[in-house]
Amino acid sequence: MAHDSGPAHVELLKLSRTSANTVTGQFRVVNDGQSELKLRISLFEGGREGDIRSLEANGIGLLDGIGGKLYMPLRTADGTCLCTALGAEGLPPGASLDVYAVFPAPPAAVKRVTVTLPLTVPMQDVPIGDGPLRALPDQKDPASVSLAPPRILTVAGVAQGDDQSVDDDGDNRAVRLSSDVLFALNKADLTPQADKLLRGVAQQVDSSRGSTVKIDGYTDSSGNDAINRPLSERRAKAVADRLKRLVTRTGVTFQTAGHGSADPVASNDSESGRRKNRRVTASFTMPPPPPTTAGGQPYRWTPGKPASSRTAAFTAPEAKSLQVEVNSLHRDQSGLTTFVWTLRNNGKSQADVGSAFELDLQYHDMMTPTSQSADGISVLDTASGVWYYPLRASSEECVCASLIRSDAKKVLDPGESVTYSGVYRLPAEARTVDIDFPWSGHEGLRLKGVAVN
């Protein structure tokens, strides 16, 4: 746990389908330090739907990587969580506390999940067992209470490339194609370079189950929409006409629209941002991920210094005393890749990293929906030239280290370290990646040639 009053860790005791509609998880929080561990709000759900006052373990989730869903603890009709109420007491040094949470059950075909816990490295590739669990103190039986509708969040991924970018929300996919590659300046005739991009989109449409593909054209803010809107409409139609010939699946219909400079995805104040805004977007039902063969083992906590495969220091002058250690970059059987890394302060003064790693408009051409998280740490698939960012739930909370929490470890004294993580949806064929660490809106550190296991 990246807990301010740590060190501490969490152990999974059991995860079991306790009924046709519920899965129950039991966990143990262990205080490994020499001072009291103040749990209180350590396991509450963040994001726009979280409650900073919560003393419940309502932030634990079950992540189905294939379905793109995050299953959150059930609540009663009056809003009480079917999970442990942590209260205001602290955990003494060396002590532990068992906690539970009852979740809506994923589909029966889902046999393994990633367990996400606030301040804690995700637990990858966890099998869902069967049968009853021993009851913990104050554990509520979901069959004995009136339940509120289950909270099942959609998990979205963002990938950014020069030629194309992809936005996935678990149910739908939007492929943003650069107009600079598809068309000549102010033209609506497809270039020879467009063919490769559109063939790739057509293959994805063929793999999806939906019957409708929406094609939307956009421009940057240069000029005026009296010219931009008709141009964007003609470009959308040109892409749709080409995809109709490339898609082999029957029963697919295409809808086209041009929006001119509306709905920018980046700032129009920079050339890189304007390039991203000049685009044609193809939206359709998200195809199922291809089969993935996981290799190696997920990250496991062990006492002492975590094992590392790579070590590098920051190049940013303000962070020159900080060092990154790569602990694990593991793709599980669902296709999700979890990156675990340790940040170490080798300097002689404190280091505050609260907002250092978040998405920044100046550096990423994107703004973070929730400040002080590690959502700006991006992974480059060197084969395709596409950057991938951590997954984000529909609550807007990043599936990565969240440092906005008051009890998150974000200030490192000299000699201290903390272990953070993030979850990414990388392509199945990605084997070697570069990892970029921003530092307060500037370049901080680039690790090249990191192997995905």
Explained architecture:
- The chain has 453 residues and is mostly beta strands.
- 11% of the residues lie in helices and 35% in strands.
- It contains 5 helices and 24 strands.
- The chain has helices spanning 179-182, 194-207, 225-246, 271-277, 361-364; strands at residues 8-17, 22-31, 61-64, 69-71, 96-104, 112-117, 120-127, 129-130, 152-160, 164-168, 172-178, 212-218, 253-258, 279-285, 310-313, 322-331, 337-345, 351-352, 378-381, 386-393, 411-412, 417-424, 432-439, 442-451.
- The strands form 4 sheets. Strands 3, 4, 6, 7, 9, 10, 11, 12, 13, 14, 19, 20, 23 and 24 form a 14-stranded mixed beta sheet that branches.
- Strand 10 (164-168) and strand 11 (172-178) form a beta hairpin.
- Helix 2 (194-207) packs across helix 3.
- The chain is globular.
- The two termini are 23 Å apart.
- The mean pLDDT is 93.
Mean pLDDT: 93
The largest sheet, given as strand count, sense and whether it forms a barrel, is: 14 strands, mixed
Oligomeric state of the chains in view? single chain
* Relative strand content: 25-35%
The N- and C-terminal alpha carbons lie at a distance of 23 Å
